[in-house]
Design brief:
This protein is α/β, with parallel strands linked by helices and about 160 residues long. Helices cover about 40% and strands about 15% of the residues.
């Protein structure tokens, strides 16, 4: 576990607007960390590849799904990913291949590509690697199920690394 002189690990979830998928993953993963007593071991952030929702709360529909499952997203505000985030985060988890491409494009020298992964690759029940965007389709509950499975598996993976 974290010693007093070691900084917490920092991870970031990324989607297009930091309005639906990444705030959901952010809030759910923080919820998991608290439940497992690891909130001081890992810091969680989320961002978008666009600046469409800067400073805004997550979509109200995703907030309702989160509340239904026992956590809130009211502490999260939309922000845009930066090259500094790539430098400082140990792991960047993107929701789809478009996000992956956009995040990797920030890293012109390719120094941080090994830190960027598709979140859904952690989902043990999926053969897909992308998490669909529920903004226009309204499939917020389905996206919650995907995100929660992937985050549960991600945490198990990270717990092994923390020991």
């Amino acid at each position: 576990m974290n010693s007093p002189d070691r900084k917490p690990r920092r991870i970031m979830f990324v989607c297009l607007g930091n309005h639906c998928r990444s705030p959901l993953a952010h809030g759910y993963f923080q919820h998991l960390l608290k439940r497992h007593g690891l909130e001081h071991e890992i810091e969680v952030e989320s961002s978008g590849t666009s600046g469409w929702h800067l400073g805004e709360l997550p979509d109200s529909r995703v907030c309702r799904v989160a509340e239904k499952h026992g956590f809130t997203l009211t502490h999260i505000r939309g922000q845009k990913i930066t090259i500094q985030d790539l430098k400082e985060c140990e792991l960047i988890l993107v929701m789809d291949r478009s996000n992956l491409r956009d995040v990797l494009a920030l890293d012109e020298q390719g120094r941080y590509a090994g830190k960027v992964k598709l979140l859904r690759t952690f989902d043990p029940e999926s053969v897909q690697d992308q998490i669909p965007d529920p903004y226009y389709t309204g499939i917020f509950e389905e996206v919650y199920m995907i995100v929660s499975r992937a985050c549960d598996a991600l945490l198990e993976d990270m717990k092994v690394q923390l020991n």
